[in-house]
Amino acid sequence: MIGVASARLVRALTAAASALEVSADELNRLDGYAGDGDLGITMSEASRALKEVLAANRHMETSQLLSTCGATIARKAPSTSGTLVATGFLRAARAVADGAGTDGAGTDVQTLERAFAAATAGIQARGKAALGDRTLVDGLDAVCTSLRESVGTGHGLGEALHFAAEAASAAADRTVDMEPKVGRASWVPQRAAGHPDAGCAMLAIVLWAIADEITAGGAAPAGG
Q1: Residue from 199, 146, 200 nearest 174 by CA
Q2: What integer pLDDT is reported at residue 224 of this predicted model?
Q3: What pLDDT is attached to residue 35?
């Protein structure tokens, strides 16, 4: 993931965008229990913008591509959820750029772990949400934990993504029994009872799409 963006990264992000577009109605439905019911609409707008950036800038350096994705989503999908996703991309881009300057830079899984850790910190700060508040942060924290474990055990990128997707799905399932503590959902917590948090569900959709794309594409070396 260091240097010129790999075709694998572009394919993975494009697959994630397509998965969000396909899941728009489901995301709207889940968001409707505790929010405005427009998460699917917002993520479809963000996904279309993301695809345009990926198609036009596939030869950018990785951190620059991620930064461009974030800036474009911030302009094209300027809702609360769109802003949080944009923040995640921008923080991840900075982490990738900073990591590229370290000795050896690390494996793809280490780069991914750094990117998700930075994105999570940025989203948590921007959204003013804590672990346990029943938000996207709960899913991101689970993914970060999974990626740290994959780094420690030496998992390859495909394995690491698969385990991260499983962690995101499990986190979404856990939110079914959690009480929302921030945002609109906290105003009517009873409406959210029995349903997974829409943001966590969205994260699981994204990671499964990426994991499937990376697995289908094989373990090509970075840059391939």
Answers
A1: 200
A2: 35
A3: 78
| DSSP letters for 104-138 | T---HHHHHHHHHHHHHHHHHHHHT--TTSSSHHH
- pTM of the entire structure? 0.89
C-alpha 69, offset from chain centre: 12
Collapsing DSSP to helix, strand or coil, 3 comes out as: coil
For the chain, the average pLDDT equals 89
Q: Which domain holds residue 51?
A: 7-217
Give the distance from CA 220 to its chain's centroid.
22
Number of compact structural domains in the chain: 1
Burial grade of 156 (CB within 10 A; 0-12, 13-18, 19 or more):
middle
Does residue 223 lie in a domain region? no
Directed axis angle between helix 24-32 and helix 198-217, to 10°?
160
Rounded to whole angstroms, what are the CA distances from 49 to 37, 56, 62, 159? Answer: 21, 11, 17, 29
Domain CATH code at residue 140 = 1.25.40.340
pLDDT, tens only, 14-41: 999 999 999 999 999 999 988 789 999 9
Task: State residue 137's pLDDT score.
Answer: 96
**In terms of residues, how long is the chain?**
224
